[in-house]
Amino acid sequence: FATSATTTLGMRQLTFAHRTRALQCLLYLADKETIESLFKKPIEEVKSYLKCITFMASFETLNIPITYELFCNSPKEGMIKGLWKNHSHEATAVRLVTELCLEYKIYDLQLWNGLLQKLLGFSMIPYLRKVLTAISSIHSLWQVPYFSKAWQRVVQIPLLSASCPLSSSQLSDCCESLIRCSECPVSDDLDMIGVARQYVQLELPAFALACLMLMPHSEKRHQQIKNFLGSCNPQIILQQLEEHMSTGQLAGFSHQIRNLILNNVINKKDFGILAKTKYFQMLKLHTMNTNNITDLVNYLANELSLDEASVFITEYAKHRGKPVPPDAAPLEILKMFLSGS
């Protein structure tokens, strides 16, 4: 099938789809030397041939007659625009035009605006995600009106279709949407507040806070984050960071959000909200690393016990390389710390 030399099918029956599948199998099963010996060509040329007949198989699906020679020799931009003009109402053709534009680096702004609009119209969201990632480095396409609209939709559609309690696949889609937000080259044009609201509705406040942090630096961003921190539950956010953002592409968010949450707890002196949780030790370490333990020491001494306060001061002193005298009593340790000695 791949070479047409041994097939029992007539040439009219042997479609480019047949050839494509056969050659894909051959490339998967045979080694480089066998393939080059069979085709009498370098492996790169064989792979290039496969790419061409794959495109031609799509032309066949659209009932557009084309030969290998015609495909190879035709000016690609003219061929693509002709295909678009006559077949843009067909989803298969829209995908084919998109693939051809990507392969042959055709970046006509009007054509791409139409392509993105059609890909949205045909609800080809998973494919559209891949396309947007592929063209994100083409700066000229950022000005296409549907470029930012397409990004907004691929981010929001999975969130709009999800509901609580989230299934594992829906949670995965929510994570993917946040990754798209972070990768979007025109994130300043996205409605991050709207996306954050959707995450709140899905009970994912850590994701919502990540969206707000992706907003352009401005007074509006500062105020949105401040308002959000005033209404969120730090324990839930820290838990979601641990469960959903500790690895992979979202790990960068985890460190920033954790620091933001812990600093907010310290600034508000709201230590009690984490006191009986596993995140209290995290809070202690954060205050030590930022040399900001005084308020927490006062909380420990006044709300818990003098012993806990002295143990914490001892840990901090050791952390700084200035250990307290081993025979010092808890009250003495506290007094020494508060006096600054």
Automatic annotation (TrEMBL):
Q: Which Pfam families match?
A: Rod_C (PF10493)
Q: What is this protein called?
A: Kinetochore-associated protein 1-like protein
Domain RZZ complex subunit KNTC1/ROD C-terminal: start-end pairs: 2-262
Q: What organism is listed for this UniProt entry? A: Equus caballus (Horse)
